[in-house]
Specification:
about 250 residues; alpha+beta; six-stranded antiparallel sheet; two-stranded antiparallel sheet; 9 helices; 8 strands; about 20% strand; elongated; IclR family transcriptional regulator
Length: about 250
């Protein structure tokens, strides 16, 4: 049986998900909890550091939440969270599934599931690629803040890795715009000839892009209606990982 006071206290705290600050009267109206109960719970929540009352008589979340938030985010292991989702995707599609994170102006492959993918691909664990090359790397670049993208495009030198590597900054910028519009990136022979990939971005609890998940294989499997199928699967998998990282 749930503790009624605890549940009501959580109801009050949840109000601050949508409101930065609330008066005593606003909390009563929004929570629909009796005035005397709200008063007692606010006193307790303030005493424990969950809420603080400002000089304007409005209540706000206390710094205790910042401490808890940093602890939770620091202890979340993206690889551990992503792996079962990657396995499920691989079992369904029989294509290689890759997980990458950003390191400066590069992306590094930190996990891969390719039991059923018999073709050896560029995307081995530990390999790096510049943010402009390959669907999985470029999906991180595409969802950075505008000023970061502008700075990157201004300073990067586009070198070819395979016959499909993007080496024109105008084409790269168009690819970034399409990724933002569609929610995914696609590459053909960018890091390795005759291979293709479709990737979707992974976001943390702050809404920042921190990685990507890609479906990869031989380019013959990444044509026509198959693109839409793989894109939908990649986006769904990336969303599941992002949610587990606290992204809303």
């Amino acid at each position: 049986m749930k503790n009624k006071t605890l549940v009501r206290s959580m109801d009050i705290l949840n109000l601050f998900m949508d409101h930065a600050a609330l008066t005593f009267q606003e909390i009563i109206e929004l929570s629909k909890i009796p005035k005397s109960s709200v008063y007692r719970m606010l006193m307790s929540l303030e005493e424990m550091g969950f809420l603080v009352k400002g000089d304007d008589s409005k209540y706000r979340l206390g710094l205790l939440f910042l401490t808890y938030g940093n602890l939770v985010s620091s202890r979340l292991d993206i690889r551990q969270i992503a792996y079962p989702i990657m396995q499920e995707l691989h079992n369904e599609l029989k294509e290689a599934i890759n997980l990458i994170v950003r390191q400066g102006d590069e992306a590094i492959y930190i996990e891969k599931v390719d039991l059923y993918q018999k073709v050896r691909l560029y995307t081995a664990i530990g390999r790096r690629s510049p943010l402009y090359a390959g669907a999985c790397s470029r999906v991180i670049l595409s969802f950075l803040h505008d000023d970061e993208i502008d700075s990157y495009l201004e300073n990067v030198e586009l070198k070819p890795f395979a016959m499909g590597t993007i080496t024109d900054k105008k084409i790269l910028f168009e690819s970034i715009k399409n990724a933002r519009l569609n929610g995914y990136t696609i590459s053909h022979s960018e890091l390795e000839d005759h291979s293709s990939a479709i990737a979707a971005p992974i976001f943390n609890h702050k809404g920042e892009v921190i990685g990507g998940i890609s479906i990869a294989g031989i380019d013959a499997n990444y044509q026509n209606e198959q693109v839409d199928i793989f894109a939908e699967k990649a986006i769904d998998a990336a969303n599941k990982i992002s949610e587990k990282l606290g992204y809303q």
